Every structure is written in C-alpha cells, then in structure tokens.
Amino acid sequence: MSYDSDFTPLFLKLLGKLDKPVRDRVLTAVAEVVKDPRSGSQLVFSRQVCYKWKVGDYRMIYRIDAR
Predict the structure, then answer these.
(1) Quick one: pLDDT at residue 43?
(2) 13-60 residue pLDDT tens
C-alpha cells in the first residue's frame, strides 16, 4: 500500500526555520514515515489515533487517514 503526505502550513513554516542539518534529518524521517507510517509510536488524542516520531530534539506528530 502506498501513502501520500500532506503537511500543515505550520509544519512547513517551522521546517523552513530549522538549520539545514536538522531540516535534512526531519525530511529523512518524513520519507521513512511515508514508507511505513505505522512504525511510529502510537498516541491517542480523544478519539483520534495519532503517531509520533522522534527526530533529535524534535517530535513529529501525524495521523493516518484511510482513503
């Protein structure tokens, strides 16, 4: 199964403010998440299941929409 990725405007804005080495690590992590989105640690926010992925001092929180 293949997945598409959509990013919030806030994510893109904050990504642009990161130093290049950190930004590259985040983008590498995003590529891994797109390959296997369920590999992150599962979180539950009210009735919505989300996942988190640690990248250095940063955390990515994302959800998977089945379409």
Answers:
(1) 85
(2) 999 999 999 999 999 998 888 888 888 888 877 677 888 888 888 888
- Give the separation between CA 52 and CA 55, rounded to whole angstroms: 10
CB distance 15 to 26 below 8 Å: yes
Q: How far, CA to CA in Å, does 36 sit from each of 3, 22, 47, 49, 63?
A: 9, 21, 22, 16, 12
Instruction: Report DSSP state, residue 40.
Output: S
pLDDT bracket for residue 67 (50, 70, 90): low
Query: Beta-carbon neighbour count of residue 44 at 10 Å?
Result: 8
What is the end-to-end Cα distance of the chain in Å, rounded? 11
Rounded Cα distance, 10 and 2, in Å: 25
